[in-house]
Amino acid sequence: MSTGFFGNLTSIPFEGPDSRNPLAFRHYNPEEMVMGKRMEDHLRFAVAYWHSFTWPGGDPFGGQTFERPWFGDTMDKARLKADVAFEMFSLLKAPYFCFHDLDVRPEGDTFAESRKNLETIADHFETRMAETGVKLLWGTANLFSHRRFMAGASTNPDPDVFAYSAATVKACMDVTKRLKGENYVLWGGREGYETLLNTDMGRELDQMGRFLNLVVEYKHKIGFTGTILIEPKPQEPTKHQYDYDVATVYGFLKRYGLENEVRVNIEQGHAILAGHSFEHELATARALGIFGSIDMNRNDYQSGWDTDQFPNNVPEMALAYYQVLLAGGFTTGGTNFDAKLRRQSLDAEDLLIAHIGGMDCCARGLKAAAAMVEDKALSGPLDQRYAGWDKPQAQAMLKGPETLDSIAARVEADGIDPQPRSGRQEYLENIVNRYV
Description:
Keywords: Carbohydrate metabolism, Cytoplasm, Isomerase, Magnesium, Metal-binding, Xylose metabolism. The protein is of the alpha/beta class. It has two domains: 33-374, Divalent-metal-dependent TIM barrel enzymes (TIM Barrel), CATH 3.20.20.150; 385-435, no CATH class. Helices cover 46% and strands 10% of the residues. It has 16 helices and twelve strands. The protein has helices at 39-43, 49-54, 75-92, 101-104, 111-132, 159-178, 201-222, 246-255, 268-273, 278-288, 314-326, 348-374, 379-385, 392-399, 404-414, 425-435; strands at residues 33-34, 37-38, 45-48, 96-100, 135-140, 183-186, 192-193, 227-230, 240-241, 262-267, 291-295, 335-337. An eight-stranded parallel β-barrel has the order 3-4-5-6-8-10-11-12, surrounded by five helices. Helix 3 (75-92) runs parallel beside helix 5 and helix 11 (314-326) crosses helix 12 (348-374). The chain is globular.
């Protein structure tokens, strides 16, 4: 059904790299085969409900700039928002979407009313999903916007807030399972502190660990077969967040016995805020065995906050998808556009153009990454660099039976005097540039 918000458009076509049509794909062709797999199945694009349909265009120094016909805290407005959202998903041929509970339903006067509102909108979603074929990549709960969460959700000093948060997550997991969501995400937007003067960090970490264990237990109880994901971010809105980066999350999971139950949803912008590159966070998740899904956006490198802009840097995307491919590609995860328009981009057409450009950028990056994998452009030199470790003597050091004593004796007896070898960084950078 057409809501009229996007005019008379019926779909966004693929017209190839020579097209000058701003409402056409130039590089994203869902049916194109890449490494023996459809491009759509590699990328698994999802549209973020919150940024695209709920965010009013504010920033830390200014309020609403967008005027949308569905803005308002009524169920009728929520249904209209859903209708416009599914129309856009269909126009873009996006196979998935993602949402927070607060994005899709109005807040009720009680928890029970809020839950009922969510379930009613889930009824509407089921109808639209059946009509369009669009699926749910993941659901999540907003445990950070309302003032009740100002001191955290699971880490709050008030146990009633912990309980309210647990009930909220349960409701959202129930809806996610009902809608056949492929993942459930937890982001600790206020799971951290503003000052250590009023914070018991050990207590809060234990509360957070217990909360996540409750989530995992409930997942198994209801037979939810999707993946539980944590989304790392170092700070903002809090001064310091406990899910700082991928490595920190892994340490947390190990401490609370969850490393085999939970994976990470990695956002490009959050990686930058943590002082890392996107490829670093992806490589870390791959090395630790907790890679799950990605939120695709970028930050403005002149700004000090999380600007959530649509991706437009093909070399960055190529290196990111290179790591995704090395990790075996997505299973339940995908590429969610956790990105929003600039607050001056007011038109309906801007929503489409932003996603078209981001999807094209990712498609170009994927194809470059796939070519590098197939040509062994980077793995070949990498294998050569570490080839010495394949020799029996090196394996004996790595896995036994060599000891520190025997290694030292061999170095002295054989007169071992290793000479440095070039890391060839510029050569490798030039190789990457050939593909992008």
